[in-house]
Design brief:
Structural class of chain A: alpha+beta
Oligomer: heterodimer
CATH class of the largest domain in chain B: Alpha Beta
Number of helices of chain A: 10
CATH class of the largest domain in chain A: Mainly Alpha
Helix content of chain A: 25-40%
CATH superfamily of the largest domain in chain B: FAD/NAD(P)-binding domain
CATH architecture of the largest domain in chain A: Orthogonal Bundle
Radius of gyration of chain B: 23 Å
CATH architecture of the largest domain in chain B: 3-Layer(bba) Sandwich
CATH topology of the largest domain in chain A: Fumarate Reductase Iron-sulfur Protein, Chain B, domain 2
Largest interface: A-B, 70 and 87 residues
Radius of gyration of chain A: 25 Å
Order of helices and strands of chain A: EEHEEEHHHHHHHHH
CATH topology of the largest domain in chain B: FAD/NAD(P)-binding domain
Number of strands of chain A: 5
Largest sheet of chain A: 5 strands, mixed
Distance between the termini of chain B: 29 Å
Structural class of chain B: alpha/beta
């Protein structure tokens, strides 16, 4: 038998089974979701949600698809948050401290309240990655922010108006493009293909009759 | 929480762990795989398919649920649509905001075309975002595009269109380079060497990854690039019909604002369908690893406009969907978990198969273990086999899981399961649409000026796809479609817009005696409780 709990979706009371996620509870209650629902698996950040358990002072944040309902849970979804996304040319920017000052100067107005970290739906140390961004330590910022799903809850809680996910996005692209070591074997292979190195080999393979292809496939050597 | 049966079985798994980790199960022979697939793979369940009665693929079989949408009524009757009031007028119209659509948009923009993306949810609400394990490319010295070709061709049962697969493997290294140059991060050693692993059916370690957020890292970077270029993205707007011109060439789409229900008209010189897969149709009642909008819309739009399907009868069931806990039932457990050393274990603690067979074979093998062999583990809501994740730490050392598959650790951690210490339960989940719209190497369908990219394409992979070849195909064929569609747009002079093909299709339905209440494209699944 299902155990039912009482939840308040956008303030309205519903009885739902206690094994449901918040997203499942909304659908159980009759919502046909358009906004606030994306991958349903914790990767896309579409279903940022704020909740409070009755009697508790703390306002918590989560992803609706990844969080079970609780009794007396007040739920408000945050399907869109107006983050600031600055436009830049990745070919022209460089991983200097100045670039953050130019594009996202508000990060230097961080008052260290740590509300971003406390609200992160992925459990990331958001304030720490902003500190790395302030110092131009983009490799560390990229690593610390890597699991960010850009749901925007951190920014909704920030008194300094920082768009943390966009700051981290810039840091990761700077790191991926300019700071991480280059892959020589990749550049070599791209050049070999341009030079037509594998063309003949591939074309002769493609012309083989099916039986020969099967033979080759079934007896190919597999790297340990 | 766990039942007694699950707890007892878990003890057996733990007791056999060291021996199982050291044990190398043999790979199946070609004949064994053949018999296994025919007996247990869902693609071979005759009763689950219907024969199409009308359209370009008349006489072909497709899943029953897809047939119902392909042979359905338009959402809005053409008589109610005013094509003279054009809301958007562009060179290249891209339908779909996933990895293929974004890649196409960037290349079309590079080529100077005015480009627009429409997407029924948000940019990046796509299966690309959820791809975890990685992306293939033969860029190591012991590997070559020819070896990659053979792996993919054989893994796909020798059914791939050779010219498409040739393109996929020869342009793979450049695709990785293109992504890296856009700032996509990859797992690398200190000297820059890509850290690569095996996937099911690969004969070389060519799986590149960004932890187990590979698709998310690619998608968010492509999205950022589209925004930097200020390419217009019209979100929460679905395409519900293609528009052709009087010569039958693609010339735009009828759009529907998902929130206000307003109808809008987009005129374009070329159109790219990049609408992705079909997991949310829940073929044969399977759960799915797919995102909310995966409802095969592009196949429906294209089919009604006269584009042919290829291999629409073949689906991929990912062997390892989460079978427990129920809140994440059907969610993807990346193949990378097995690449890193976890094996599949049955209720008795036995490693019953090689963990890196191709996906169709692995899925069929798990279904056999849970059905005829009676070696599945019963959960409160179903059945599954163990995926022994603690083996990863045995093999790779403590900390490997947190470093290489943090998303998996988090997904199960939220429900109190520490995958470093406990195995997890898995069962096949509907994952990928192997078939789709038929294209030539330039990305165009048989309908002139109509292009397709990404999961909506059929024929790149044949009848089964290898891990890591989908993230690759959305980049290679997304870029390809963007380049060709924008080039073709330069020579297109648009004629009068028309929806007469929709009327013709409706008439063909009536002539065939098909009467139905179903309207398509489906756009979104309906998960509301049936009261």
């Amino acid at each position: 038998m299902e155990n039912m709990v009482q939840v308040f979706l956008m303030g309205k009371k519903y009885e739902v089974p206690d094994n449901l996620t918040i997203m499942g509870a909304m659908e159980y209650a009759g919502y046909q979701l358009v906004r606030g629902c994306g991958c349903r698996n914790g990767f896309c950040g579409a279903c940022a949600t704020i909740y409070r358990i009755k009697g508790d002072q703390e306002l918590k944040a989560c992803l609706a698809c990844q969080t079970k309902v609780e009794n007396n849970m007040y739920v408000a979804t945050l399907p869109f948050f107006p983050l600031v996304k600055e436009v830049y040319d990745i070919e022209k920017v460089r991983p200097t401290e100045q670039i953050m000052m130019q594009l996202y100067p508000e990060i230097y107005a961080c008052i260290g309240c740590n509300a971003c970290t406390k609200s992160c739906t992925q459990g990331l140390n958001v304030m720490q990655y902003i500190a790395y961004a302030q110092r131009g330590e983009y490799e560390k910022c990229a690593e610390e922010s890597f699991d960010c799903v850009m749901c925007g809850v951190c920014s909704s809680r920030c008194p300094a108006g920082i768009s943390h996910p966009q700051v981290a996005m810039l840091a990761r692209r700077l790191n991926g493009k300019y700071l991480a070591p280059k892959s020589a074997h990749l550049a070599d292979r791209v050049q070999e293909i341009k030079d037509g190195t594998f063309k003949e080999l591939l074309e002769s393979l493609m012309q083989k009759p099916l039986s020969e292809m099967q033979e080759l496939y079934n007896h190919r050597e597999i790297e340990k | 929480m766990y039942t007694n049966e699950m707890m007892e079985s878990m003890k057996k798994v733990a007791a056999a762990r060291e021996a199982n980790a050291a044990f190398e199960p043999r790979r199946m022979t070609a004949e064994e795989k053949d018999t296994l697939l025919k007996t247990y793979h869902p693609d071979y369940k005759e009763g689950e398919f219907a024969v199409l009665q009308i359209g370009p693929n008349k006489g072909d079989k497709v899943p029953t649920e897809l047939a119902a949408l392909l042979q359905a009524n338009p959402r809005v009757s053409p008589a109610e649509i005013d094509l003279s009031k054009v809301d958007y007028d562009v060179d290249v119209l891209i339908i779909g905001g996933g990895g293929a659509g974004a890649s196409a948009a960037i290349e079309a923009d590079n080529n100077g075309a005015s480009t627009m993306i429409v997407t029924k949810l948000r940019m990046g609400d796509a299966n690309t975002m959820m791809a975890e394990g990685g992306i293939q490319a033969a860029d190591k010295p012991n590997d070559s595009p020819a070896i990659h070709y053979l792996d993919a061709f054989g893994g796909g049962h020798f059914a791939a269109k050779p010219e498409l697969l040739y393109k996929l493997v020869t342009e793979a290294p450049e695709a990785i380079q293109w992504l890296n140059d856009l700032g996509v991060e990859f797992d690398k050693d200190a000297d820059g060497t890509m850290i690569t692993t095996h996937g099911g059916g690969t004969s070389r370690k060519r799986m590149h990854a960004a932890k187990d957020y590979s698709g998310a890292e690619i998608m968010r970077t492509l999205r950022d690039e589209v925004l930097n270029r200020q390419i217009p993205v019209v979100d929460f707007t679905a395409a519900i019909e293609l528009i052709l011109d009087e010569q039958g060439k693609a010339a735009g789409a009828v759009l529907l604002n998902m929130e206000t229900q307003e109808i809008l008209i987009a005129r374009a010189k070329t159109v790219i369908i990049a609408t992705g897969g079909a997991g949310r149709l829940h073929y044969q009642g399977f759960p799915t690893s797919n995102h909310y909008g995966a409802t095969a819309d592009g196949l429906v739009l294209g089919y009604r406009a006269g584009a042919k399907l290829l291999y629409a009868d073949t689906l991929q069931y990912h062997p390892t969907g989460a079978a427990y806990p129920e809140q994440i039932f059907g969610a993807l457990v990346t193949e990378k978990v097995r690449s890193l050393g976890a094996k599949l274990i049955n209720v008795n603690g036995e490693a019953f198969m090689h963990p890196l067979e191709t996906r169709d074979v692995s899925a069929a093998s798990i279904i056999r273990e849970c059905s005829d062999r009676g070696n599945g583990v019963h959960t409160p809501d179903g059945i599954g086999v163990w995926l022994d994740t603690p083996m990863i730490e045995l093999k790779g050392g403590e900390g490997t899981i947190e470093k290489r598959i943090p998303a998996m650790m988090r997904m199960f951690g939220k429900y109190g399961i520490d995958i470093r210490k406990e195995p997890i339960l898995v069962y096949p989940t509907l994952h990928y649409q192997n078939g789709g719209l038929d294209i030539s190497a330039d990305g165009m369908t048989g309908v002139e000026n109509l292009y397709v990219a990404g999961e909506a394409v059929g024929g790149i992979h044949g009848r089964n796809r290898l891990m890591g070849n989908s993230l690759l195909d959305i980049i290679v064929f997304g870029r390809n479609a963007g380049q060709h569609a924008s080039e073709k747009a330069k020579e297109v002079t648009l004629g009068a817009l028309s929806l007469s093909h929709v009327d013709a299709f409706t008439k063909e339905m009536a002539d065939a005696g098909i009467t139905t209440d179903v309207v398509s494209p489906k756009l979104l699944p309906d998960y509301r409780r049936k009261k």
